[in-house]
Write a structure and sequence with these properties.
Structural class: alpha/beta
Oligomer: single chain
Low-confidence stretches: none
Distance between the termini: 43 Å
Helix content: 40-55%
Largest sheet: 4 strands, mixed
Radius of gyration: 18 Å
Strand order of the largest sheet: 3-6-4-5
Mean pLDDT: 88
Order of helices and strands: EHEHEHEHEHE
């Protein structure tokens, strides 16, 4: 949720972080702001998956989440194990392949992500339908 246009100067700083604000009423600027907020949300969702993966590994379970390895992501994709994937825009070849089939929920993350959990784990995070050891494929 975000507000558009001029608002009271006292209200702007008082808005919670869940409510954004864009000064302009230009549709292109509003859409750019929407894309910026959505990208931030998607990075957060990828971070949640990474946290789940780390927790699973800590418990000694085979994780239902994978990250970083394009080889493992390719195995999961080719064997129809992949449920959804968060991928950085720099991996165009992989994005094109996933988009062409339309069988996997694809989230493309844009911009600089180096200092996020998503960036630290290779700019590629995917969720499987069930726990599977991809080394067996």
């Amino acid at each position: 949720v975000f507000l558009v246009g001029q608002i009271d100067k006292a209200l702007g700083p008082a808005l919670p972080s869940t409510i954004g604000h864009v000064q302009s009423t230009s549709t292109s600027e509003i859409y750019d702001y929407f894309l910026q907020r959505r990208n931030g949300h998607v990075i957060g969702e990828a971070g949640k998956l990474i946290a789940q993966m780390v927790a699973d590994v800590g418990k000694g379970l085979v994780p239902v989440i994978g990250a970083g390895s394009t080889r493992d992501a390719s195995k999961a994709y080719k064997n129809a194990l992949m449920k959804r994937v968060y991928v950085h825009e720099s991996m165009g070849k992989f994005i094109d392949r996933v988009r062409s089939d339309g069988q996997v929920e694809l989230w493309v993350i844009q911009g600089d992500v180096e200092d996020t959990e998503f960036g630290k784990y290779g700019k590629l995070v995917w969720e499987l339908f069930y726990r599977a050891d991809l080394e067996a494929f």
